[in-house]
Amino acid sequence: VVKFPNGSGTVTDISCGSVHMVAVTDANLVFSWGCAMEGRLGHDKRTTSTREGFPECSCEPAVIPKLTGKDIKSVFVGDSHSCALTSKGKIYLWGCGSSGQPGCDVPYSATPFSLKGEGYPKFIHVACGPDFTLALSDQLLTWVWGLNREGVFGHVDMIDKSCQLLLVPDFQDLKPIFLGCGSSYCAALVLSDDDLLDEPHFVSETNEHRKSDSSCDSLPDPLIHSRFENDTSINHLVELIGDLETKNRDLMALQDRLEVKCGRQQQELASLREQTNALKALMKGKDVPV
Fold it and tell me: How deeply is 152 buried, as exposed, middle or buried, from its count of CB atoms within 10 A (0-12, 13-18, 19+)?
């Protein structure tokens, strides 16, 4: 059993990596514990390893000071990096940066930092793979960065890794609402049952794709394909939710009617059984074979 310090509040979200964990509470506090190597815990302890090569570890949850008061609603953990999503749609990242998974070109960051740059949208969901990150915007567009392990970017495999946010091509028609990551694959829960596109949408490789800044405070602008600029998927989502709520009410009303009808049929069946038993008793009294 993991015990949190007094006054920590109630845990509202938690995420597990291979060797560390992160949790957020309703007291607007974010805790982490486990392996601290490569800045995983976000405690600003710039430890890569200790004696004999064993990583520094923390067995008890400790507050991540940088995230206190940031109104974090969800946390997400990869093998060696972590993300936190605020109620206003901002993403904070920290941990190993060898493959660009925290969104900047540094070996690692032991202090959480927010994505900065022109063109970043409001995010509503995040998912972490071992060394890559997916994020879903409020326009239901899917972004990816980190290590392009076996095509997880959804692009042709022309980019090995990127600390720059890239859009997953030809995905807006599927209207994803939830993302998930495996070790070398991704999945999305979508609103539409449209068939997947047969051919991938090619993104040309330019020097800008590989360009990155050595500082986490100055990040390159996200790569936005023109076909995504005027997406209105969020309106469709609102309409669909309304339709689902209406259908749910209709189903509940139908269930009520069926329960009433079933009750009546059970009463009729019980009455028939009573009549049958009475008839059997009457026939038995007159020595009539039943």
Answer: buried
Whole-Å CA distances, 110 to 42, 46, 128, 165, 280: 5, 6, 18, 21, 85
3-state secondary structure of 235: helix
Q: In which element (H, E) is residue 262 found?
A: helix 233-285
The phi and psi torsions of 135 (rounded to 5 degrees) equal -145, 145
Q: pTM of this prediction?
A: 0.62
User: Residue 131 contacts by C-beta under 8 Å, 6 or more apart in sequence?
Assistant: 78, 79, 80, 81, 96, 98, 99, 101, 146, 147, 149
66 contacts: CB under 8 Å, gap ≥ 6 = 42, 44, 92, 111, 112
d(CA 158, CA 205): 7
CB 130 within 8 A of CB 160: no
Give tens-digit pLDDT for 9-43.
999 999 998 889 999 999 999 999 998 888 888 88
Specify the DSSP class assigned to residue 14.
E
